[in-house]
């Protein structure tokens, strides 16, 4: 035994056997045995988009020089060996240009800290009744769920940080719109959703659409994470409320401050805490 100990020591000194936590590279070594405590994951947010175009045009756009996303999911993903195929356009460790000017829970430059998933979907069109959004195919959502679960597990992304593009850029964006199945995904452990009993508690017997003060609702939304500031015009305030309603109260997303929207915001703050 003593002989083998001398042999191992000789090999170690000669560089033939690596120490645990020491990695040999070409021309140098890395000692990884002293990890800093003040280290934080880069990826903290998952952003869901729709492409507002067909798959071929979407793929061409997202692989051009102007915009990009980490993943693109067709409306009806082709099956290969029984599994839906998803297109990865940018490695997760690299930054993609999908969020644009954005804000969420005190942070800007959301591209720097997020993964973006684009869903092939035509978006909305104007009708006599206003904006009409296109539904999402069940096969597309079926493909999305395991991908998102993998991402959330890898980066420990908090439920409140699984967001719509409209949540982080309400003045510019509507996607993925009110037909995206946020509630169904929350039942699968994906994203935030308020507890119905707590919404009823905060509603406290009021009619769901009873008007409330816009400033009161916006204060709650700012605390939850939306970009709200005193200089906003009434039209800009409405856009923030619409984004919130499309995500958490899609039955009516008119941008009007009402009792149910207020109760939902209060229930979300109670469950997930306020930004910062």
From TrEMBL:
Its EC number is 3.5.1.28. InterPro entries: Amidase/PGRP_sf, Amidase_domain, NAMLAA_amidase_2, PGBD-like_sf, PGBDSf. It catalyses: Hydrolyzes the link between N-acetylmuramoyl residues and L-amino acid residues in certain cell-wall glycopeptides. Pfam families: Amidase_2. Keywords: Cell wall biogenesis/degradation, Hydrolase. Residues 31-177 form the N-acetylmuramoyl-L-alanine amidase domain. The keyword Transcription does not apply. SMART domains: Ami_2. One of its GO terms (molecular function) is N-acetylmuramoyl-L-alanine amidase activity. The keyword Ribonucleoprotein does not apply. PANTHER family: N-ACETYLMURAMOYL-L-ALANINE AMIDASE AMID. Belongs to the N-acetylmuramoyl-L-alanine amidase 2 family. This is N-acetylmuramoyl-L-alanine amidase. It comes from Kosakonia calanthes.
């Amino acid at each position: 035994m003593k002989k083998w100990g001398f042999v191992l020591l000789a090999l170690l000194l000669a560089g033939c056997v690596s120490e645990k936590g020491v990695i040999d590279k070409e021309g140098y070594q890395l000692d990884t045995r002293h990890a800093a405590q003040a280290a934080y994951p880069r990826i903290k947010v998952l952003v869901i988009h729709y492409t507002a175009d067909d798959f071929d045009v979407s793929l061409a756009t997202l692989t051009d020089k102007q915009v990009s996303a980490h993943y693109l999911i067709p409306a009806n993903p082709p099956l290969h060996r029984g599994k839906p195929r998803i297109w990865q356009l940018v490695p997760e460790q690299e930054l993609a240009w999908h969020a644009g000017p954005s804000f969420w829970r005190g942070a800007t430059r959301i591209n720097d800290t997020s993964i973006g998933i684009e869903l092939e979907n035509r978006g909305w069109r104007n009708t006599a009744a206003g904006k009409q959004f296109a539904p999402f195919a069940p096969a597309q959502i079926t493909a999305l769920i395991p991908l998102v679960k993998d991402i959330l597990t890898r980066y420990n992304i908090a439920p409140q940080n699984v967001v719509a593009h409209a949540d982080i850029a309400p003045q510019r964006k509507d996607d993925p719109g009110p037909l995206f199945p946020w509630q169904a995904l929350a039942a699968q452990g994906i994203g935030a959703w308020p507890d119905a009993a707590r919404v009823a508690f905060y509603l406290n017997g009021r009619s769901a659409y009873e008007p409330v003060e816009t400033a009161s609702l916006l204060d709650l939304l700012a605390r939850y994470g939306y970009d709200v500031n005193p200089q906003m015009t009434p039209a800009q305030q409405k856009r923030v409320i619409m984004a919130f309603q499309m995500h958490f109260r899609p039955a009516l997303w008119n941008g009007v401050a009402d009792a149910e929207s207020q109760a939902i915001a209060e229930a979300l703050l109670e469950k997930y805490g306020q930004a910062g």
